[in-house]
Amino acid sequence: MAIFPNPGGKLRVLVVDDSSFMRMVIRSVLEKDPAIEVIGVAVDGVEGVEKALALHPDLITMDIEMPRLDGISALRQIMAKCPTRVLMVSTLTCEGARATFEALDAGALDYIPKNVSDSTDAQRIFREELLRKVKGTAGSFLGRRLAPSATASVMTRVVPAPRPVASHAPLQRLQYVGIGASTGGPVALQEVLGRIPANFSHGIMVAIHMPKAFTGPYAERLNTKCSLLVREANDGDLLQPGVVLVAPGGRHTALVRQGNGVAVRTLATTDCPQYIYVPSVDHMITSLADACNGAMLGVILTGMGADGFKGMKHLKEMGGTTIAQDEATSTIYGMPRACVEGGVADSVLPLTQIGPEIARIAG
User: Fold this and answer.
1) Which of 232, 245, 110, 253 is nearest to 183 (CA)?
2) Dihedral over Cα of 67, 107, 325, 230: its sign
3) What is the pLDDT at residue 9?
4) Which end of the chain has fewer surrounding CB within 10 Å, N or C?
5) What digits encode the pLDDT tens for the residues 49-69?
């Protein structure tokens, strides 16, 4: 359970959207939860900024496309004048994805895919996602911390496991890197990959919780900001040195042995009903560990929940090496925490040190 910014009181939310239908839907979903109070609504970015300054909400849901002042511009004004936790409400289009990543760079914590249709399943998924993200980000860090505080150690913190685990894979055996993330992950992953040199000699597979329409534009964005080649994975792709493949949204990704290499296999969510989050970090890391016999480095970045823990545990049992992002620099410490407290993180590092450490260990 998240710790709300105002312990003992309700989570106070401002809803900003130019669609009267969406304002009604979001308000109706949130007000059904006794721990949440919608303290106001705004019909565009101008009114959203005004009400944010006047009401001081704990969290804002912000539409992107609005008249007078769009959501990204409103977000920038709010972050400059009264920093507040903001969740963007994004359309499931390539344009919506690009705008969402721009908003995350500007300080938004996360996004909610706007997928409200006549489908009962779509409505249920939207309700569940909205509540999960609103409540999950309520106690998150506000702002961006890329390095530990002045009083924190900047050395690698080796975390003792509560039970014996397999020894690390010898450095010369490491062949691949698997990285998983969720909330806060788009910005964190950009930071990590941006610190890995272009001559990196191992293939990298990434699984980050995103809808189908978002992973392609996200990979394109990373490709323009990193020295490595980054692209969305396709079924049958081989992991190659110096190339980052991003697992496609809306499906699960498994890695399988193919000759002397490792290839991507995408699976429908119905084929893996045991996995709640899509694409599953657990499934990606577990299958990659199996495909390379543990000769890999697993990395878990910021995110809600515990996706990735089972995969990292499996990797440790096969002799692999693991890194988790530290609490001080995580937007949401859920996924890294599960690995640290479960004793499967060899090292716990601040965000700015993870990319260089990947290069050092696997280089």
Assistant:
1) 110
2) positive
3) 80
4) N
5) 999 999 999 999 999 999 999
335-348 pLDDT, tens digit per residue, is 999 999 999 999 99
Considering 86, 106, 137, which residue would you say is the last residue of a domain?
A: 137
| Per-residue tokens: 14 | 């401002």
pLDDT for residue 38: 96
Catalytically active residues, by annotation: 182, 209, 307
Domain of residue 326 covers 157-362
In degrees rounded to 5, what are phi and psi of residue 13?
-120, 140
The span from the CA of 221 to the CA of 363, in Å, is 25
| Residues 68 and 125 occupy one common structural domain | yes
Which residues have a Cβ under 8 Å from the Cβ of 350 and sit 6 or more positions away? 146, 147, 148, 152, 154, 325, 326, 328, 329
> In 269-279, which positions are buried (b, 16+ CB within 10 angstroms) versus exposed (e)?
eeebeebebbb
pLDDT in tens, 302-329: 999 999 999 999 999 999 999 999 999 9
Per the structure, the count of domains in the chain is: 2
| Rounded (5°) CA angle 137-138-144 | 60
Mark whether 243 and 200 lie in a shared domain: yes
Q: Of the residues 137, 170, 200, which one is the last residue of a structural domain?
A: 137
Are residues 299 and 227 located together in one domain of the fold? yes
Whole-number pLDDT of residue 215: 95
Classify residue 193: in a domain, yes or no: yes
CB atoms within 10 A of CB 37: 15
CA-CA distance, 300 to 324, in Å (whole number)? Answer: 5
Classify residue 268 by burial, with Cβ atoms within 10 Å: 0-12, 13-18, 19+: exposed
CATH number of domain containing 219:
3.40.50.180
Q: Are residues 341 and 215 in the same domain?
A: yes
150 is a domain residue: no
